[in-house]
Amino acid sequence: MTPVRRTVPVAAAAGALVLGALLPLGLQGAAQAAATPNGGDVIANLFQWNWNSVAAECTNVLGPKGYGAVQVAPPQESISVPGHPWWEVYQPVSYNLNSRMGTDAQFRAMVTACHNAGVKVYADAVINHMAGANQSSTTGYGGSGFNPAAYSYSAVPYSKSDFHGSPPCPNADLSVTDWNNVTQVQECQALNLEDLSTESDYVRGKIAGYLNSLIGAGVDGFRVDTAKHIAQTDMANILSRLSDTRWGGRPYVYQEIFPGGGSQLAPAAFESNGSVLEFTYASKLSQQFNGNIANLKTFGQSWGFEPSDKSNVMVTNHDLERDRTTLTYNDGSKYRLAHVFELAWGYGTPQVYSGFRFNNKEDSPPADGNGFVTDVNCGNGTWTCTDRDRGISNMVGWHNATQGQPIANWWDNGNNAIAFSRGSKGWVAINNSGSAVTQTFTTGLAAGTYCDVIHGDLSGSNCTGPTVSVDGSGRATVTVNAGDAVALYAATTGTASPSPSSSASPSGSASPSPSASSTKPGGTVTETFNENRTTVSGQNVYLVGSLPQLGSWDPNAAVALSPAGYPVWSGSVQLPANTAFEYKYIVKDASGNVTWESGANHSANSGANGGTLNDSWGGATATGQVTVNFSENRTTVYGQNVYLVGSTAQLGSWNPANALPMSSASYPNWTLSLTLPASTAFEYKYLVKDASGNVTWESGANRIYTTGASGTVTLNDSWK
Fold this sequence. Notes:
Layout: E1 43-46, H1 51-65, E2 69-72, H2 104-116, E3 120-125, E4 129-132, E5 146-147, E6 152-153, H3 182-187, E7 193-195, H4 201-216, E8 221-224, H5 232-240, E9 252-255, E10 275-277, H6 279-289, E11 311-313, H7 318-323, H8 333-345, E12 349-356, E13 383-384, H9 390-401, E14 407-412, E15 417-422, E16 426-431, E17 437-442, E18 448-451, E19 458-459, E20 462-463, E21 467-470, E22 475-480, E23 484-488, E24 524-532, E25 540-545, E26 559-560, E27 562-565, E28 568-576, E29 580-588, E30 594-596, E31 602-605, E32 611-616, E33 625-633, E34 641-646, E35 660-661, E36 663-666, E37 669-677, E38 681-689, E39 695-697, E40 703-706, E41 712-718
Parallel strand pairs: 1-2, 1-12, 2-3, 3-8, 8-9, 9-10, 10-11, 11-12, 24-32, 33-41
Antiparallel strand pairs: 4-7, 5-6, 12-13, 14-15, 15-16, 16-23, 17-22, 18-21, 19-20, 24-28, 25-26, 25-29, 27-28, 29-30, 29-31, 33-37, 34-35, 34-38, 36-37, 38-39, 38-40
GO biological process, one term: carbohydrate metabolic process
EC number: 3.2.1.1
Domain CBM20: 519-619, 620-720
């Protein structure tokens, strides 16, 4: 809400990506009618991200990871004041959709992009009030005329008679002096915010018209700001006027109801109009992660929460993180583990909050000189892209796969380590203590090998990280590091490989043919593919090749690559060791059309240790190269990862945003294999990034190396 307790009313991460660059204004993609929701319920709360950045996040992260919805900033035009504090957007001046987050057209394009990714859009709806009566600015982000001093908003239009005065507010200055008094809370001004007379049929019609305009643009639901300040009967009347959403059914409504006040002001009194934001959940969760998480065994309605089907739960939000009353991005592993627990426990409708870093409570999000929010960059330390944290984003899939399953197989050590399953569908262990825990757990899972999705990504039947073996009794011996977690839900064994396809490339490109290479002894290795390819909105790059793990030349079984270092698309695949293979890249658009890379097939050999293949669209892998194995000994804490960066473009040109992630499979040795040009000198260093994007450089002089004419070399280094 606008600051009810403030002087004048949120905000692990992948590498840097300027999201707006991926999705130009003329967003292309499948027709809205062709899109269908993905069925998930997890909400990514992208606090004050601009519309282009939300669109890109839906396309590249939220949809692929299974998020069901995205909560976006208030879309209506708001006041613009000097310094452009974050709360500007909670002081509306019209119901036009030109705001500091972008234009009306950009908003509609964002909704379309999110729908094309299967993600619903929930808008933050500020309908209790307009701007502050104490504001002198008459400048809005869309150019509409207004005058707060005169209670005049010509673009709606509203005049002074459309606002609460005294009476009905019992206080002449219109302030709220008794937060337990229903009349004061719902008919006076919270911190000078001009309180709309929602008893008025005219005002109800204007509010409903605004919300219906959002539904017409494709919005699927609303987070109702300051809902406690709107009489329940008034809210019910407004909601009764709303249309069904484009995807069918009534809009999902969740209301901001701070706890406190008498029975008519308690959260339960508002449930007839929708769900409520569960502030008590966030507070109690914070207390346990700062105390003893073994207590979470009974976490639920008995703790004072609203019923699960009426609760919209969270670890934090923009108000709470500014008040420091809950866990925030400053709390490191506790913050991440609390999100893991929230997604695993299954109480209420969960949110994952991604905002921006701030030094002062009133700070603006990153913006230009006119206050318009700039594109989100998750790697420059200004944004907290929690929705991308590997463990958290992969827990969204875990959450979706275990929906409806009961809590079972609870284990705790009486202190700060717990484990439990959701029926027989998923199992998680969380260690909030300062030392590792090794235990043989009863997981409830069927026998098999499972991907630890906290540390690795599932790609078909492959896992890019560590795996856990579950025996025939459903038991597994697992070590959970300090401040860390392990989560299992999908077995990586027993999945049939796709049949080879006879599909050929389109005219003008070489037709791929299945490789005759056979698997040789030596197990599997990790091969990383980097493809430089610019795309337009709705397009994604995939890898396909001669091995079953690469889809056997079937575009429908191709491996999706990630644009985390756009325009370079990357992905890692477990391949049989010492095996020759061929491969190509393809582009698919939102309608499923496939464009094959031209030219001859790429050829490579996985070798004994795997490696990295760096390619450009339509170009063969370079010859005259040397394989360099980098190994860096560096201990880390949860959320930290080690990267390699250096003097050449392939090594990121000393830009931390382009640094290359290293594997922790041999921890504390972090490893990375690269194919580099022969007989070439380069300089390099190692750095550490945490989940919030903070960068720590290795000290001392740059390391220097010159590759030989051919062969393989290993550089064994230790952090300095």
